[in-house]
Amino acid sequence: MDQNAGSFLAVRRLSGGGIVHHHHSHSSPAEVVGVSTAWIGKGLSCVCAQRRDSDARLSFDLSRIQEDCLQRLQKRIEVQYDSSNLEHQKALKALWRASFPGTELLGLVSDQWKEMGWQGKDPSTDFRGGGFISLENLLYFSKNFPKSFQELLCKKNGDRALWEYPFAVAGVNITFMLIQMLDLQAAKPTSLIGAVFLNLLLENDRAFDILYCITFKLMDQKWLEMHATYMDFNSVIKSTRRQLERELLLEDIQRIEDMPSYRFLAR
Length: 267
Fold this sequence. Notes:
The protein is of the alpha+beta class. It has helices spanning 64-78, 86-99, 132-144, 146-153, 167-181, 192-203, 207-225, 233-248, and strands spanning 7-13, 19-25, 45-52, 55-61, 163-164.
């Protein structure tokens, strides 16, 4: 995973409904936020906890089924977007159809992609930070929560900023942030947040995709609450991450759908 990914494209909203694109660079997503070290016992065996100032690193033994579940997700994370792969091309075309039904796509390299919030004519150049799973996340969102997807894509809700976050690039950043927050490239969970999420993944193998949808919707709400503009994107992502961590540590969260912010998603 590229630690320096995160080239950002702001979108200026015009009174007539059109959009103008503007390039901007921001720092890497979301700093590490400390979480409670109280173990709430959800099926993983905590074998050690070493305190270092305010940070705690935990280590968990996994059962074979837990290992398999985590490894399946890790295999998805490892796949880079390949513009020559026909399946990847098919997924990108499917995302266009879900985003703009009835509008013909002129090509996989086209200025049309800027209307979705990609940085240029070729969306494949924006997958560096998130890989193919970031496209899968967007596609899952569009198919399973189409109402919320369209609201965010078209910036339908709230008093929007003059310079808006670009939908698609923000989505890639969210995928990257979640992978970092949950430490999903480690062989086993090294934080309480990661351990809790693994249990949710055992309950539903699409938990990461659903968490992505929750995060995107929550991020947009934070954006509106903070009256943010594109310069504030990193602050919004950090605030979103802290909210996610608080919700994941609630004791009554047994399924990904139990997260309080899940209720904001609309089909």
